[in-house]
Write a structure and sequence with these properties.
This protein has 314 residues and is α/β, with parallel strands linked by helices. Helices cover 30% and strands 27% of the residues. Bound molecules: NADP nicotinamide-adenine-dinucleotide phosphate.
Length: 314
C-alpha cells in the first residue's frame, strides 16, 4: 500500500510517498481502506518535532495522521459492531502512532462510527479531531449550559467552526472572533455576534462571559480571563501557557482547564455522527488536496488562516 512517510522531523520536503506492507489488525481492530483524511495543526507541530513526535518516532516508519474516513476491508475476531463493507469515520488512536496518512489503516473499532449517508468521505474525515475537540470542550472538559454566553476564539477555524454550531445546538448565545473576511462565515454558522480581532480588542466590547473556548493561547488566554464571570469556565486548547496567566485564572477563581487533550471515544464519535446525520453539524472544507500534494496541505495548515478544514483525498 501507499503511505506518506516522514524521513525526519522538519520541513515538508521530508514527506515521501512509499510502498509499505499492509498493516495487520488485532482482534479489537478493523482494517480501513481510507478514502480521505484530514490535516490538523497537531500534524504540523508533530512534523516539525513537537507534540506527538516521540510517539511516532518510537513506531517507525514515521507516518502522521489520525483523522480518517473509509470502508472496512477486514474485521478483527472480537469486533461485533462493524462488518466488511461498512463506511466508517473517526479519530484513530489519538496520542499514539496511528499512521493515518496511508491507503490502509488498522483502527480500533471503538474509535469509529458509521459514516452518515448524507455526508461524503471527505466531509466525514473533516468531522473527526476538530469536531470531537469542540464537543468534548463544551460538554466534557467544560459544561456549556442553555442560555450561557460563550466566546469562541478562532470561530472560523477547524475547531471553532464546529464549536459555534455545537454551542448553538446546546442553546448558548455565541460570540465568535475571526478577521473581518470571515465574519459572514462565522455568522452563517449561527453565531449571534462577531468580533474582528484585528480591529477590536474583544475585552473592550464583551464582559460577563460564562464560557470561553480559548484556541489561541499565550496572552489571549490572560485577556480572556478578564471577560469571564467569576463563576465562568475557560477551556484552553494550545499547550504552553505561562505560569503568570495560570496564576491569574486561579486568583480569579474561574473554572479553568489549562490544556485539554481530545481523546478517541466511541460514544463521542457516534454523537458527532448523529449530529451530522441530522444536519445540526455541517463541516466546511476550504481546501482539498491529493495524496501527492501533502506538502501543500501542510503549508496551508501552517498559515494559521485556514477556514474550516483541510482534507486529503486518498
Ligand atoms: N488540546 C487539544 O486537544 C487540541 C485539539 C484541537 C486543536 N488544538 C489546538 O487548537 C488550536 C486551534 O486549532 P484549529 O484546528 O481550530 O486551528 P486552525 O483551523 O488552523 O485555525 C485557523 C483559524 O484561526 C483564526 N485566527 C488566527 N489568529 C486569530 C486570532 N488572533 N483570533 C481569532 N482567530 C484567529 C483564523 O481566522 P482568520 O483567518 O479570520 O484570522 C483561522 O480561521 C491549535 O493550536 C491546535 O493545535 C488543540
Amino acid at each position: 500500500m501507499k503511505a506518506i512517510t516522514l524521513e525526519k522531523f522538519g520541513g515538508v520536503e521530508n514527506f515521501k510517498i512509499q510502498n509499505l506492507p499492509m498493516p495487520t489488525i488485532s482482534e479489537n481492530e478493523v482494517l480501513v481502506k481510507v478514502k480521505a483524511f484530514s490535516v490538523n495543526p497537531v500534524d504540523v507541530k508533530t512534523r516539525v518535532g513537537g507534540s506527538l513526535a516521540k510517539e511516532l518516532e518510537n513506531d517507525p516508519p514515521i507516518i502522521l495522521g489520525w483523522d480518517i474516513s473509509g470502508t472496512i476491508e477486514e474485521v478483527g475476531a472480537n469486533v461485533t459492531n462493524f462488518k466488511v463493507g461498512d463506511e466508517v469515520f473517526g479519530m484513530v488512536k489519538f496520542g499514539q502512532s496511528a499512521k493515518a496518512y496511508a491507503e490502509y489503516v488498522a483502527a480500533p473499532a471503538d474509535h469509529l462510527a458509521l459514516k452518515p449517508a448524507n455526508i461524503t468521505h471527505p466531509q466525514a474525515a473533516a468531522s473527526t479531531l476538530a469536531a470531537l475537540t469542540a464537543w468534548q470542550a463544551l460538554t466534557y472538559f467544560g459544561k456549556l449550559k442553555q442560555n450561557d454566553t460563550i466566546l469562541i476564539h478562532a470561530a472560523a477555524g477547524g475547531v471553532g467552526h464546529f464549536a459555534v454550531q455545537i454551542a448553538k445546538h446546546l442553546g448558548a448565545n455565541v460570540i465568535g472572533t475571526s478577521s473581518e473576511k470571515n465574519k459572514e462565515f462565522v455568522l452563517s454558522l449561527g453565531a449571534n455576534e462577531h468580533i474582528d480581532y484585528r480591529s477590536t480588542k474583544f475585552e473592550d466590547v464583551v464582559s460577563d462571559i460564562d464560557f470561553v473556548l480559548e484556541t489561541m493561547g499565550y496572552e489571549n488566554f490572560g485577556r480572556s480571563i478578564d471577560v469571564l464571570k467569576p463563576t465562568g469556565t475557560i477551556i484552553n486548547l494550545p499547550s504552553g501557557l505561562s505560569d503568570e496567566v495560570k496564576a491569574k485564572a486561579i486568583q480569579k477563581g474561574v473554572n479553568a482547564n489549562f490544556f485539554m487533550t481530545v481523546f478517541s471515544d466511541s460514544h463521542d464519535i457516534n454523537t458527532i455522527a448523529s449530529l451530522l446525520q441530522s444536519n445540526i453539524l455541517t463541516p466546511y472544507i476550504s481546501h482539498q488536496y491529493s495524496f501527492e500534494e501533502i506538502g501543500a496541505a501542510h503549508t496551508q495548515m501552517e498559515s494559521g488562516s485556514t477556514v474550516g478544514k483541510i482534507v486529503v483525498l486518498v
